[in-house]
Amino acid sequence: MPRVKVSTVTLDAHDAHELADFYVRLLGYAVRADEPHWVLIGPPDGDGVSLSFETEPEYVRPVWPTRKPGDQQMMLHLDIEVDDLEAETARAVAEGAVLAGYQPQDDVRVLFDPAGHPFCLWVETAQ
């Protein structure tokens, strides 16, 4: 089988640069490419999945959890492992994230980025 790997996840937003700036601060990623309506960021060491952001004027924020038929559904979310869930949640909020009102698990915090995409901070717990 040929070598295949996911290299980049792309998120739409009203402002690609604003959203890229948020994730650069949150993840410590570096900007790899910067165009008028598109930005690519990735880990400083170049190893791992990159994120790109595309300006989409018709972008509609997803609703999570979905409440009624017709709501723009979440199509994906990012899972971000952290060492200290409480501290990293506070840092994410300070960087511009919003804590979701519904939290389904004790070892996970669901937040929304500035464009409304849900993402999860999670911590490894002993089984």
TrEMBL record:
InterPro entries: Glyas_Bleomycin-R_OHBP_Dase, Glyoxalase_6, VOC_core. It comes from the Bacteria. SUPFAM superfamilies: Glyoxalase/Bleomycin resistance protein/Dihydroxybiphenyl dioxygenase. Residues 5-127 form the VOC domain. This is VOC family protein. It comes from Streptomyces sporangiiformans.
